[in-house]
Amino acid sequence: MNRPISARPSVSIKAVDKIWTPEGRTPVEALRGLEFDVAPGEFVVLLGPSGCGKSTLLYMIAGLEGVSGGSIVCDGLPVTEPSAERGLIFQEASLFPWLTIADNVAFGLSIQGVLPVRRREIAIEMLKRVGLGDMLDKKPDELSGGMRQRAACARALAMKPKVLMMDEPFAALDVQTRSRMQDFLLQIWRDSGASILLVTHSIDEAIALADRVVVFTARPGRVKTIVPIDLPRPRPTRDPRYHEYRDMFTELLAAEVDRAFAEQEAA
Ligand SMILES: Nc1ncnc2c1ncn2[C@@H]1O[C@H](COP(=O)(O)OP(=O)(O)OP(=O)(O)O)[C@@H](O)[C@H]1O
Q1: What is the Cβ-side half-sphere exposure of residue 202, based on CA atoms within 13 angstroms?
Q2: Span 119-139, pLDDT tens digits
Q3: DSSP β-bridge partners for residue 69
Q4: Which parts of the chain fold into alpha helices (H)?
Q5: What interface predicted TM-score (ipTM) does this complex get?
Q6: HSE, side-chain direction, 13 A CA sphere, residue 131
Q7: Are 86 and 59 in contact (CB under 8 A)?
Q8: What are 175-192's pLDDT values in tens digits?
């Protein structure tokens, strides 16, 4: 069910351009005039052909990269630097291999100045929430890929982010684990009340998770269309409307992938 849209967006992307200018190489126009809002507590999925600037957008919302034009406003404030209120999770869980899972989760809290005893308490609470309560003192390489990704979620959630960004978080997982992780993510999304922006290449994942799907054009990425998913959760995969969404996204993406290939060939 879609949530009510409140007055102030959680994330507001206003006419955002991004040109990468790598030293000694031709500049790359990654995004052009990108514009959309994310409501508080909304689950937005970003779908688009490879290289259209989806990851670039997440880095900029996270404050790890600046915009070349336009602005990104989170909770009324322009993004100028990273903040604990905006968490970013990558495809491979970026945990410190030498720390236990509990210490990995507690690490970010130490930067926030939380006292050691409280850090441990929060880490235990978060790891229990993601079903890793009996793995506290394991090192990352003792965990499966899905468990590591859940630990990365616990670490991000411990910071109580208002916005959680996920860059193809389940792409490296097998189909069954991926489906479980999607259920798990919907559960922590509901519990945390955070807004989520998730990048995926999977149309089924987009339909399974999103309140709205933002479809990007081929590079330079612009908003091609925004599609609200008007189906109950869990999404009824046998419902004819599910298949209508599927066909629509397949067509939208195919058109952009064709365009990207045609431009590459012409270049
Ligand atoms: N650090 C960087 N320096 C220079 N160019 C970059 C950098 N990061 C990304 N780019 C370029 O910007 C464009 C957009 O890349 P980005 O990774 O954001 O796309 P994407 O939509 O996430 O792609 P994919 O779906 O394949 O992960 C690409 O042409 C890429 O080569």
Answers
A1: 18
A2: 999 999 989 988 899 999 999
A3: 17
A4: 54-62, 101-111, 116-129, 145-158, 175-192, 203-209, 240-266
A5: 0.98
A6: 13
A7: no
A8: 888 888 899 899 889 988
Residue 252 has which token pair? 């939208």
Joined together, the tokens standing for residue 139 give 């090192």
- On whether the CB atoms of residues 218 and 260 are closer than 8 A, the answer is yes
Distance 239 CA to ligand 1 centre (A): 36
Residue 58: phi and psi, rounded to 5, are: -60, -45
| Cβ(87)–Cβ(165) below 8 Å | yes
Which domains are assigned to the chain?
1-30+43-85+162-224+237-267 (3.40.50.300), 94-160 (no CATH)
Rounded to the nearest angstrom, the distance between the alpha carbon of 53 and the centre of ligand 1 is: 5
Q: Quick check: bond before 9 cis, omega within 30? A: no
pTM for this model (two decimals):
0.93
* Alpha-carbon span 94 to 90, nearest angstrom: 7
Cα of 209 to ligand 1 centre, how many Å?
24
Task: Provide residues with CB under 6 Å of ligand 1.
Answer: 20, 22, 28, 30, 48, 50-56, 219
